[in-house]
Amino acid sequence: MSGPALPQGYGPRRRRVAPAHKLWIAVVIANLGGILLAVWTAGLLRAIPADPSTDTWLFIAYYGAMVVAAIADALWLDEVMFKGAFRLTHLQGKTADTVRPTEDIGTVVATTRRSSLSFPVLLILSGGLTYFAFNFVNGNFNFFWRNLGVHLADLRGDAPEEQSKRLSAIAELSIRRAPQDRTMVPRALIGQLDRGGEEAVWGAWALGRFSDIPGRQRTPIYEALMAASRKGDPKLRREATIALARLQYRPISKTLSEELEATLSEQPSDHRLIYSSGWVQSMESVPGLSKLLRGDDPEAQRFAAWALSQHRDEKDGREVVRILEDRLPTASFLTRCAIIHALMITSDEASNLALMHAHDIASAEERDTECPLLTIDLRPDGQGEAVRLLEPVDTYEMKILTSMGAARATTPEIRAKVEPWLVRVVGESEEGSLKKSRTLSLLEGIRAGRNDAEGAAPAPEADK
């Protein structure tokens, strides 16, 4: 039998969940869901999707998840710190004038707070913390995208009007060396070799700059460039050959020597090809370099002299010394400068005789003229990777004395010719001049190392 009905207002009541607890649940859901969405979208962006328009939607999802999480965090903080002032006044429209007398004291106080100032501050703080948290979970994705991802994304597409953007992206990627980039970047550049055209040429050049990564990581680069060097495109073949030479990949020696022979008939010769031959240091390149040294291109002669000197440590490498010495007397002034510098690198004692002759046949004006630097830009457009050779800058005469200092004179036969010559140069030099100081220093160094005191040339007056 049922009892009498309870008066209105009595009986069991439903337990009310506090707004702060509801918002905490929302915070957990928003942050966990946002992180999962951000990880997924960041993974797709790292993979560089084929459709460029996909980027926009992925970034909207990535940053949209951050915004939702930041808003949830700010609302919860507002509830905890300011009793929900923003929720009550801006979302529910309550004010100090409209609040009912039956409302609890916390609600009344909250409607009097200036939430238009406090909530934006909370939102900014929550947004900053959410940004850094999402970025941390995604392995510093924001840094990845700014420094790498945006350039990888620029490689997509085949529109002719966007080729300059793709080439600029390749140039930027060629200098990326962070540990996490050492596989992703070469893989992206290798992909350009199959594209063909200018992108393939620039891709080969960029891969040639990765000589500073560990040897095992270079294997895919070697294989891709070797395949490119066998393709029908002569421009790509040469660029791939130059790149492999810069990586000091010796199996390219035969192809390199063939390219050197081919450039003999070109006007002007490909100076980048000559320069890169100095990195492989294969005697197969020496015949071509020797022809270039005697050719009609003055700049090519200077590059060939430097490249020949780099072969000094190869088996039969001393052959390059004879080639340089034979060319020295009949070469132009700038080529003589380059050969003298090259003989300083080879440091062969017998070269003292050729150097003394080069000094004696030069005019007084030539001896006082500076031997300039030799510069070359290795980028395909010649505007971004400059290299300077034949440093330091010095006068022709000082270059000769420096080279003689490197070659030294140790055997009696060579000293018998070098010491009297140095004594003569000292006598011709002005007192206190750099020329006299260097010549005396060279002479004293030779005498200090001798072991046959008898028969020594007499010391000059200034040396006593």
Question: How would you explain this protein's 3D organization?
Answer:
There is one protein chain. The model is unreliable at 107-112 and 453-464 (pLDDT under 50). The protein has 22 helices and 4 strands. The chain has 464 residues and is an all-alpha fold. The termini are far apart. A hairpin with an 8-residue loop joins β2 (374-377) and β3.
**Helix/sheet category:** mainly alpha
Biggest beta sheet attributes = 2 strands, antiparallel
- In the sheet with the most strands, the strands line up as 1-4
The number of distinct helices, counting runs of at least 4 residues, comes to 22
- How many beta-strand segments? 4
What is the chains' assembly state?
Answer: single chain
Rg from C-alpha positions?
38 Å
From the structure above, extract its key features:
464 residues; mainly alpha; two-stranded antiparallel ribbon; two-stranded antiparallel sheet; 22 helices; 4 strands; 63% helix; 3% strand; disordered C terminus
List the helices and strands and how they pair.
Elements: H1 19-46, H2 52-82, H3 85-91, H4 105-110, H5 115-137, H6 141-154, H7 163-173, H8 181-193, H9 197-207, H10 219-229, H11 234-246, H12 253-263, H13 271-280, H14 286-293, H15 298-309, H16 319-327, H17 333-346, H18 351-361, H19 364-367, E1 370-371, E2 374-377, E3 386-389, E4 394-395, H20 396-407, H21 412-428, H22 434-448
Antiparallel strand pairs: 1-4, 2-3
Helix pairs in contact: 1-2, 2-5, 3-5, 6-7, 7-9, 8-9, 8-10, 9-11, 10-11, 11-12, 11-13, 12-13, 12-14, 13-15, 14-15, 15-17, 16-17, 17-20, 18-20, 20-22, 21-22
